[in-house]
Amino acid sequence: MLNKRDEQRSRILIMESRLLLGICDPRGILRQGECYVRVTMDVDGQPQTLKNAEVLVTRNPCLHPGDLQKFKTVHYPELSHLVDCIVFPTQGKRPSADMMSGGDLDGDKCKEIPYPCILNFLTFAVVFVCWDPDLVPSTVSEPAEYPAAKEHVTFKAVTEEDRIEFFARYSNASLGRVKNLFLDWARLKGPMSAECQQLNRLFSQCVDGNRIRVPPQLEDPPKPGPDQPEFVLDILHESGTQIIKNRIDFSENTYSFDDMQFLLSKNHVAMSEFELILIALRWCAANDYDFVDLLPYFDFNSLSDEQKAWTLGKVPPTMESSCLVMNAMLQSNLVDSQELSQFKLHYPGLRWKRVFDSSRDRMGSFMSATNQILELFHKKMIILKVDQRLTVALYIPNKIEKRTESVVDSSVRVFALPRSQGSDSAQYRVVPTKKNYRVYCDDTTFQLYNDKRADTWIFLNRAAADRSSYQNIPSRGDQRRQKQQTIDAGINHEFVASIALNKISEPIRRHVGRLNRAGIQAAVCILIG
After folding, report:
1. Residue pair 36/79 in contact by the 8 Å Cβ criterion
2. RDRP core domain: from which residue to which, for each copy (predicted)?
3. Which of 113-122, 163-172, 425-434, 500-509 has the lowest mean pLDDT?
4. What pLDDT band is residue 163 in, cutting at 50, 70 and 90?
5. 43, 364 in Cβ contact below 8 A?
6. CA–CA separation, 411 vs 395, rounded Å?
7. Average per-residue pLDDT in the chain?
8. If you placed Cys at 116, which of 34, 136, 161, 202 could pair as Cys (CB 3.0 to 4.6 Å)?
9. Would you call 473 exposed, middle or buried from its count of C-beta atoms within 10 A (0-12, 13-18, 19+)?
């Protein structure tokens, strides 16, 4: 609830919500008051369309109650390729985005809340999708008018000097002042008061870079009286202040190595990875401990390039530490440095970056993540643990368009890492594809094959689940937990793999046996960063 300058912030977590980009209807089939929303679900990582639901939408700034507008979600198969965005109609008397703070669709993010859903008093441009009926407002206000500020009329062509002068004169320095005055008047009379709405219009002009003048009668709002109801932001601010006052301060001298090991090995900590590194460095300095020994505990994949370089400056310049910090593949649980060194994939100059890891991400979203990196990036690698005795990796240097048979010829490499003989095994293989090889992928399937699908090398698809142990449980939450227990026990799998091991090597095929619809136990997707 507080920032570093002790200012108020109201960030309230709403579990069933989405941050979406607003776009216009590319086909012109949505009518006024309708919208199309298709989002990726947390449960299984699959996209789902909201149908016949009321949706509340707003964007930043949101100072007028009418900046929150209600739409009805409809389903059109023609728009099903648009995922994790909200599609607004192009029909009607007034653009939908303009009704929310006078906005447009030039790349701004919107706040969206499917009705039955959300919100509190928010000041950030985010999109929410909720199904909590307790948070549904019964009515919404009429949208405010946001006329453009008066400008000098000219009939000459706009020159480069005109653009330079416009940007030089652009200023939104009064935004904070107007916002604070708005909050002060809202405490006294509410956001629908005449004072707040006058400040709202000034705020809108200030966002556009226009110079404004606050009327004298709005400059000094009176202090709330003793009988005035307490403002909700003040209540949240006081609560956040008390939490900070009552926190336990960290002292490096009071923690043992076991305590630090426990802290650094926790999966969910309310601080960034770089903050953990700073704490560990202070602890090492206070306790005369070598920071290099703690490097394997950190997720360097989450650091920026500047933070990685800063961290490397705190350790001796060795190949091992440089590789660990700069090459995310070395932090994968599926391969180790000795295995990677056999294929020359362990060097720090290979700036591999993990974008999916089943140890921290839901395995149910594996295929959607794979589709995304295949379509957007060139150099990527997919690592799969398909058996206790075998890990397989695919290096694909081509962009693969979704739902399209893409010709890759001899560019793909398939790595096989048998596990029963250790990292010094002579059975490690890397095999290239040949001419006429193709790759196909969609939301449920990945297939690598030679010209015809009957000659498939690697086939990945979503597994059919055995629902007998949880299909009759009434609670959806309990169903998800029971389903996860069946996955952890090896009864069910999110995805399965069928691999023609004889295309890799005959000794590996004899060692592992037939690999048909084998459950994928773990997966990692990595790309060159």
Report:
1. yes
2. 7-231
3. 113-122
4. confident
5. yes
6. 9
7. 82
8. 136
9. middle
